[in-house]
Amino acid sequence: MNGLAALSAMGFALICIFAGRLGIGSRLRQPAGLSFAGGAATAYVFVHLLPEIGYHRLRIEDSTQAAHEAFLYPVLLAGTCIYYGLESYLSHSRRMRGRAGFAVHMAGFSLYFALIGYFLQHRGDKDPIQEVFYFLVLGLHILVLDTEFRRRHEALYDRIGRWVMAGSVLAGWAAGELFEFPATVSGMAFALLAGGMILNILKQELPASREGQVMPFLLGAGLCAGLLALA
């Protein structure tokens, strides 16, 4: 068992369960905190997440399934489009208010959180320092998403949703402990997660220009990029 992966999975689950009760997310939603988190997440996408696609391409080539590697980038795009479509539908459809919208929202993000948990075990870079960075940056990302879920669904999320998200992360991690997808499936799953993450970071963690603060954003981006480059 990868001890750091297990601790990270438990840490993500604890964020889902307790962050709202402790008021951590509401403090992060302040302009400076959101700008810092957005900068760190943006740096993570460009310095680490997108290059990770290259690792999965190499795995596909090495497994003699090179004909499928070209599909990774369309799947990356599909992940962005799927989560954009989900957010747009939830925001504009009258049928998606209340319990129906909550169920659809949780279903879509259960997969997202499960993949985050799964790739605690099966990322390209398994250096312990990189695993710590993965936890810190993704922990901030989950915290921002948790705050948005609470804002949109209020009592429903507090009563049910936070447990669903925590369980999804732990289920994904447990699945990663038990088995590993074939290279093609793993690459496409990672591309789907990365595409969704790009959309969610741009939507949730980059504040509007009137609300954002440049210096905290640059500090978050520079600090994250520098630490990733040195690791």
From TrEMBL:
Q: State which residue ranges cross the membrane.
A: 6-24, 31-50, 70-90, 102-120, 132-149, 181-202, 214-230
Q: Which UniProt keywords apply?
A: Membrane, Transmembrane, Transmembrane helix
* Domain of life, per lineage: Bacteria
Q: Would I find Transmembrane among this entry's keywords?
A: yes
Q: What is this protein called?
A: ZIP Zinc transporter
State the species of origin.
Answer: Pelagibacterium halotolerans (strain DSM 22347 / JCM 15775 / CGMCC 1.7692 / B2)
- Mind giving the lineage of the organism this protein is from? Bacteria, Pseudomonadati, Pseudomonadota, Alphaproteobacteria, Hyphomicrobiales
